[in-house]
Design goal:
Blueprint (H helix, E strand, L loop, with lengths): L1 E6 L4 H9 L17 E2 L2 E2 H12 L5 E5 L4 H8 L5 E5 L11 H11 L6 E5 L2 E3 L5 H14 L4 E7 L9 E5 L5 E6 L10 E2 L3 E4 L6 H9 L10 H9 L4 E5 L3 E3 L3 H13 L10
Parallel strand pairs: 1-4, 1-6, 4-5, 8-13
Antiparallel strand pairs: 2-3, 6-12, 7-14, 8-11, 8-12, 9-10, 9-11
């Protein structure tokens, strides 16, 4: 299995927050890509590399970024033997390819023909998350059918459904649909879906069909990886594995909360997410 970490975003909200912060406490974060932000004792993305390596789940980790941050990611990656970095060659948020196109680019560039773990580079999970457990669920699904893929979900608050992609599932935890940012009245489900997917190698060719079908639409209709998952659910079996929650580093307050957790509350950084 391979891992692709999506790190080509420009972090515009976070950078605006840093630039407008009057305390000066966070100026060291200016111009830093979100996955490279210090979280506890290491960069956010390094927590993923450590967990992926120690769990033995993957034999290759690929990070796709943009031209602005490419050099910084190359310097960071030099300490990890499993990590390779790819640039999407864009230089602004307005010109971005979008996460799905970046995933497709990475798979084609590195000629990946294996199952793929897709990970959002600005996301971390709570300490009870285990890669080995999730891989175990995926392996069981693969025994049942080679087309099966797996996504995660966690229970969000009723008033927060409009912030997330919400999964509706059957009694076997097969996903029936993903509703994009619905109101609480539009769905009974509270299963928010973070950017972490174990995709069967059988469904990777569908990336081409998805992007071809969306090529004439605005970037927001093909950018987020959840757009592909929502489309995939209607064409290939997708199941969910429930977790307790996540950190989503989107702005300065969410970064501060995440960093504080790793400095004050994380019990064992070496076994984290393994």
């Amino acid at each position: 299995m391979k891992a692709v970490i999506l790190a080509a975003g420009y972090g515009t909200r976070l950078q605006r927050d840093v630039d407008s912060d009057g305390t000066g406490r966070f100026q060291h974060l200016s111009g830093v890509a979100k996955p490279l932000l210090p979280v506890g004792r290491r960069a956010l993305i390094s927590h993923w590399v450590s967990a992926l390596t120690l769990s033995g789940c993957v034999d290759g980790i690929y990070v796709v970024t943009n031209a602005v941050y490419h050099k910084a990611f190359e310097e960071w990656a030099s300490q990890f033997s499993l990590v390779k970095v790819l640039s999407d060659h864009t230089r602004s948020n307005e010109d971005r390819l979008g996460a799905v196109a970046c995933l497709q680019l990475t798979i084609k560039h590195f000629k990946i023909e294996d199952h793929v773990i897709v990970i959002g580079g600005d996301t971390l999970f709570l300490e009870d998350f285990s890669l080995k457990k999730v891989e175990g669920t995926f392996s069981e699904l693969q025994v049942q059918c080679a087309d099966n893929s797996l996504v995660l979900s966690y229970q969000c608050k009723e008033e927060d459904t409009h912030k997330y992609g919400i999964l509706e599932v059957d009694e076997d935890l097969r996903v029936l649909c993903m509703k994009e940012k619905p109101t609480a009245a539009e769905t009974e489900s509270r299963r928010a879906c973070p950017c972490f997917y174990m995709l069967s190698k059988k469904c990777l060719p569908l990336l081409d069909y998805f992007l071809e079908s969306k090529k004439d639409l605005p970037i927001q209709d093909r950018d987020a990886p959840g757009n592909f998952v929502s489309w995939l659910i209607q064409r290939s079996p997708v199941y969910t594995h429930e977790i307790s929650g996540r950190f989503d580093v989107g702005n300065l307050p969410s970064y501060i909360e995440c960093d504080l957790y790793f400095k004050k509350k994380l019990k064992n950084v070496e076994s984290y997410m393994v």
